[in-house]
Amino acid sequence: MVFSFSPRRSARRLCAALLVAGCAAALAACGFHLRGPQALAFSTLHVNLSPYSELGITLRRQLAMSGSTAVEENPERAEARLQILANERTREILSLTAAGKVREYELVQRIRFRLVDRDGADLIAPTNLIARREYTFSDEQILGKEQEEALLYRDMEADLVRQLMRRLATWRRP
Fold first, then answer.
1. Distance between CA 95 and CA 30 in Å, rounded?
2. Rounded mean pLDDT, 61-70
3. Among 58, 63, 70, 75, which residue's Cβ finds the most Cβ atoms within 10 Å?
4. pLDDT in tens, 28-59
């Protein structure tokens, strides 16, 4: 084997390495960082959901990941209380086939919540959060479509919990 040294090729490699290093340094210098958990303005929070419901489990997990707020099971000892006023799931028909069978559904999940202090005064007034997903339906694949619907509902619920956590994180003491 014969190895040849090419000054032109080495210069190109050096320029490419310097360009990559320069881009990495510029990206690091701009202050870019991944969004992590956001600290909440209260140290304890009571959630009026069952710790065994899907929404209750997901919400408690997100609160634990915030690092600054603990879930308090006794509402009198909590600094703030998160009240889930409604959690509704609906399925609406979007379109039909020529034979009158359902072709598409729209799944909608609504959560209505409010945040109150120890005295019952509103910190965040009653607020609606809505998530929507569409999917096609087929009678030949009924089991698969049921699983797809359940997966879409789980995805919507996770999305709504993230929205709720962002709303809680934006509240600051007056």
1. 48
2. 88
3. 63
4. 666 655 566 677 888 999 999 998 999 999 99
Domain segments of the chain: what residues? Answer: 37-170
Using the structure block, give the residue that is written with the tokens 């009026």: 48
Helix%, strand%, coil% for the chain, nearest 5: 40, 30, 30
- Tokens representing 21 are 């290093």
Q: What type of residue is 132?
A: R
The two structure tokens encoding residue 94: 């979007």
Q: How far is CA 121 from CA 111, 116, 164, 166, 167, in A?
A: 20, 5, 19, 21, 17
Q: Which fold has domain 37-170?
A: Double Stranded RNA Binding Domain (3.30.160)
- pLDDT range class, residue 161, cuts 50, 70, 90: very high
- Tell me how far apart the alpha carbons of residues 58 and 38 are, in angstroms, rounded to a whole number: 16
What's the whole-model pTM score? 0.75
